[in-house]
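Entry 12.
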Amino acid sequence: MNVPLLDLVAQYRTIKDEVWSALQRVVESQQFIMGPAVPQLETAVAQLSHARHGVGCASGTDALLLPLKALNLKPADEVITSSFTFFATAGAIHNAGGTPVFVDIEADTFNIDPETVEAAITPRTRAIVPVHLFGQMANMERLLAIARRHGLKVIEDACQAIGARRSIDGEWRVAGELGWVTAYSFFPSKNLGAWGDAGMIVTSDDAVAERLRRLRLHGGAKQYHHEEIGTNSRLDTLQAAVLLAKLPHLAAWSGKRREHAAYYSKAFAGLRGVTTPVVERANEHIFHQYTLRAERRDELLAHLKAKGIGCAVYYPIPLHRQECFAALGYKEGRLPVSERAAREVLSLPIFPELTREQMDTVVGAVREFYR
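Predicted 3D structure (tokens):
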């Protein structure tokens, strides 16, 4: 049996009438640019995030870039982030005019290690960008305490973690609630995915929300009046309509992902050669990815693909070892936990529509390899 890593067609079949109705309303209105669906989605995602403002933009990358632009970074200004994540996090720091400073991760959660963050702070540090990797929130309480001590902004990269929660002092806090601003991606493969590129920023800072709205519209709140130089990063109305149709299903989809993860982890318990994902006790994971640590990872990857089972390595090269950042001077061995993760991680199918038969096929193939 072939098992895809992701099956968006299966999701589409369950919601196609709702999505097409939403798209038809946009088409009939002919309001394709900043139509009513955009502010409606902004309000809904802000509410989900316990934030006052949502600012839609063209992609998750822009959702990271625009807040960094709002910091008015200079080339010597440093922004600390994880080396073990997707490129957009560090690329946005560079493209906003700053210098990325890479730090290591926790071995169990794959999230940024607060101890390495504090050790990396210098007089040039302006902000910290923690990534809630694979759908599990980073240790925000420790990171926020560090940021307060040093007068730094915290920008949450929640591009993989919409709807994730963390219990802090006995209260559930959600991704998007605690940072100065938070970036979301609605890339089609995300837990809440558009039918193309789309992103959003949420914040409870009124002033920065107003500025972000200007920055996404060529730097002007009023047409043909430009207070600063911005860019064109509007959230497409058709994409907003798709996302509004999908949003009511998000909690159930994340719940199915958690069920699938629990099934996998039980099936792999005691299997020598693999380490199942660790969910920190304080966290409610949304499992954007189900990521194992695997001995002989590359051989296992080839074995699974030969059997028609979708799997992927997120991420094979840590950011501090990418060629484009060679001038920063990071050598092999500088961030050993990230480097080890890059050699060992393997993500398995976890999409909500996955069947029990499909999961058993995946489990059987993994167990066969290590037998």
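Annotation: The mean pLDDT is 97. The first strand starts at residue 53 and ends at 57.
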